[in-house]
Design goal:
Elements (H helix, E strand, L loop, with lengths): L5 E3 L2 E3 L3 H11 L4 E5 L7 H9 L7 H6 L6 H4 L5 E8 L8 H5 L6 E2 L8 H20 L4 E4 L7 H7 L4 E2 L5 E2 L7 E8 L18 H5 L5 E3 L2 E2 L5 H7 L9 H4 L2 E3 L3 H4 L26 H5 L3 H7 L9 H15 L4 H9 L6 H18 L3
Parallel strand pairs: 5-12
Antiparallel strand pairs: 1-2, 3-4, 4-9, 6-9, 7-8, 10-11
Helix pairs in contact: 1-6, 14-16, 15-16
Amino acid sequence: MEAEGAQQGEYLVPADLPERIRAWGRALGFDAVGITGVDLAEAEPGLRAWLEAGFHGAMDWMQRHGMRRARPAELVPGTVSVISARMNYLDASAAAAPDVLAQPELGYVSRYALGRDYHKVLRQRLQRLAGRVAEAVGPFGYRVFTDSAPVLEVELATRAGLGWRGKHTLLLDRDAGSFFFLGEIYTDLPLPADAPVSAHCGSCTRCMEVCPTGAIVAPYRLDARRCISYLTIEHPGDIPEALRPLLGNRVYGCDDCQLFCPWNRYARPAGVADFQVRNGLDAATLVELFGWSEAQFTQRLAGSAIVRIGHERWLRNLAVGLGNAPPSEPARRALRARADHPSALVRRHVAWALARQAQTAAPG
């Protein structure tokens, strides 16, 4: 059977290797695995226009990487194929997202960040998948990625047949929605590419309509500078005052464009235990979270994706949430306790929140 495979250089690729890769991927917890080539030239004009518009905000590394993101063989020389994999992350036992958003005294954390850091989960499993391949073909060149390098993840997944790009720019699948992570294996193995699937957004613009800050400025075009996920995670400085009231109680990320997408009626729960809720983050109060010391933040969120933003940004985000919360003495007390925080960034957001609490508490 192996003699029927394709050969490039020293590799003899068994004809059934792609199907075996998919089976190994499923056994490792991935919900779908696909394969594509490395020619992403058609994606370069859109990427260039997005960068030139400044939509990447303070994410300077995107500008530095430039077109390398769309050229896998430049990022990892010798790459001729990409194995793309996706993994569901919803915890079915978590508090319902709409219910948390409807209770402004609670802190809303994006559903993807409620459990273990996905970078670690996917990277380890992708490495194990590569190990399975090596057992079948011998040592080969590869490198795994999970949102960790200049990689056009959605573009690659789309070409690998794992779904289509939605108007919110995320990958969508008819049977799984969009609540899943993506990861890749860049490899020098000559593997046959899977066929892309057709798009099924049609005339629907629900994701654009429900975005709290209007960050989806056109179909398939996101201005990160207005995106709550960017503002609460990637943005290092002050959250623009005009946008703060629009954040509501979203203190780490935002899921609105996914929550209101019709295709997410079919979203499936995670098949691995790593993404189960930790520390009650699915429905914790703003006051409780704001009270965590830096040591508590680091200890309780060890192994979480949230810890990488640091305690300072965590407090900044929570201060905005408290400023948007209903007026209450517990909220004002919590804010006053941080009014002289060593960080000027935190102090500025606390002052804004206290002023908001005073305004909303005023009679009439």
